[in-house]
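Good morning C.,

I know you're traveling, so I'll keep this short. The sequence:
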Amino acid sequence: MPERDFDSIYKDYSRLVYWAAYRVLNDKEMTEDVTQNVFITVLKNMADIASLPDAQLKGWLYRVAVNAAVDAKRRTGKEVLSDEPVGAEVADDAVSTEEQVMKKMLYSAVRETLRGMEETYREPLMMYYYSEMSVKEIADALDISEGTVKSRMSRGRKILARHLRARGISYE
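The tokens, ready to paste straight into the viewer:
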């Protein structure tokens, strides 16, 4: 595999880093700071990471982003909750107010459930849905088998579905 340069790493993985950090912080400004710091770390470690296979690089970036976000959260002790996903567009007039309220309730319930979920189940779900990592990439990043990833994701989805049903929230 040819070595990558910083620009290609940033272009290919900045979204993954941002979302991994945002899922921990739930704060746009802090997430932007953490993302910037992660890519400073990338610059400092270019000699070591430029030739990593894609799956290893993706896993490394994910772990660095999550760890940096946890550290930032610990330093500030600040948790800002928002019911809007990052980058949410201005409400479409074609979408009814009721639909908007239901979506907001669903986002909030999913986020709250994920926050309270055991890390064993939360982490693979977040890596898959929010960081768009494949099962194989998650397995490599967490150093577990693909079967274990699939099992944890299945259990995590069941926990999530059970909590949503208990709140009377339809998600299908």
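Safe travels,
E.
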